[in-house]
Design goal:
single chain; 372 residues; alpha/beta; Aspartate Aminotransferase, domain 2; seven-stranded mixed sheet; 14 helices
Length: 372
């Protein structure tokens, strides 16, 4: 059987299993309401554009201005001649926003995670990961284990007793890195960050969180899981994205001590051998960070909308999310893609929803935005 034939057989099985993903094409900017090709106007309840920054005029204007000022691309990796002043400005703003000393940008948070673990960990080290961590953390750990032969362990989801057992068992490791999501997007709950930090202090471990679904959206002013848990400035390493609540552009970053980002600049392979964010993207991201910092009322409204949405779901008898601010609704839906498509059709564009990821076949989410 040829490769194409084998792949087509598997694709056909995806359709029979109800997990085949059909792309919905937007013909307008990402927003609370969009124009979806073939469906007309649709209310979006499935994006990560939590603060509605994708089409904020200042964010769009910043990208246009940078295109004129810096050109379209970088033309080089960063350590040769591909770092622009806009990258430095963005990284300084990100570090301030998440309560860290320094930050380093990547082309995605997936890239940031894969650049972190293999760079920091060696044979004498161990990474201890939450059972329900995002796929990018899982793959980063797998990559580190393959490349550096580091030790790995997984603790039961948000189970502090099990985490403590894993920390005790790894007492001989040079570095014990505890890696967790801040918000578990498909579960709808929040890491017990204060408890994790307490255990890390007790056992001399380092804590890293992927805060992609919390940066800009969680905490009183959107500073993320650390602010929500009352430990802003105490987390050793934060990775996050520029493509969700800070949705003016794309990309990701790692934040922490200046020595950490300097070391990643010297040794992190995804950073060393990939071009930086295009200047126009970096400029849009910087404008989004500044806008979010200057308008905490967007976060307040997001939380109010999420609370209202959650209450109405519960009134209808639906399973409510566990997250305090970001409503992710989990539940079995074996034909979920077909269900979503039918709901969009039947409601004539009243609701747009995305209830699946292939890696989590019984999970889903509905996400009201600040601008709904």
């Amino acid at each position: 059987m040829s490769l194409a034939a084998r792949l087509q057989t598997e694709l056909d099985q995806f359709q029979r299993d109800g997990v085949y993903k059909r792309l919905n094409y937007l013909a307008s900017p990402q927003a609370a309401r969009v124009q979806m090709e073939g469906r007309g106007e649709v209310v979006i309840l499935s994006s990560n554009n939590y603060l509605g920054l994708c089409n904020t005029p200042e964010v769009v204007a910043a990208g246009k201005q940078a295109l004129d000022l810096f050109g379209a691309g970088t033309g080089s990796v960063r350590f040769i001649c591909g770092t622009f002043t806009i990258h430095r400005d963005l990284e300084q703003a990100l570090a301030r926003f998440v309560g860290c000393e320094s930050a380093l940008t990547y082309v995605s948070c997936w890239n940031a995670n894969e650049g972190l673990c293999p760079t920091l960990l060696g044979e004498q080290d161990i990474v201890i990961s939450d059972q329900l961590n995002h796929a990018s953390i899982i793959d980063a750990v797998r990559l580190a284990k393959t490349i550096t032969k580091c030790q790995t362990a997984v603790y039961r989801h948000s189970d502090m007793a099990d985490l403590e057992e894993k920390l005790k068992a790894s007492h001989g490791a040079r570095l014990r890195l505890v890696f967790t999501d801040g918000v578990f997007s498909m579960e709808g709950d929040i890491a017990r960050l204060a408890d994790i930090l307490e255990l890390a202090k007790k056992y001399d471990a380092v804590v890293a969180i992927d805060d992609s679904h919390a940066t800009g959206a969680l905490g009183k002013t959107g500073r993320g899981t650390a602010e929500h848990c009352g430990v802003l400035g105490d987390v050793d390493i934060i990775t996050s994205t520029l493509g969700k609540a800070l949705g003016g552009a794309a990309g990701g970053f790692t934040a922490g001590a200046a020595a950490l980002t300097d070391y990643l600049t010297q040794r992190s392979r995804p950073q060393l051998f990939s071009n930086a964010l295009p200047p126009t993207v970096a400029a849009s991201a910087l404008a989004a960070v500044r806008h979010a910092a200057a308008h905490p009322e967007l976060v307040t409204r997001l939380h109010a909308n999420a609370k209202y949405f959650r209450e109405q779901l519960r009134a209808l008898g639906a399973a409510g999310p566990r997250a305090g601010a970001l409503p992710a609704v989990g539940g079995a839906q074996p034909r979920r893609h077909g269900f979503c498509a039918r709901r969009i059709q039947e409601s004539r564009g009243a609701v747009g929803s995305d209830l699946s990821l292939g890696a989590l076949p019984e999970s889903g989410k509905l996400s009201p935005l600040s601008r709904h």
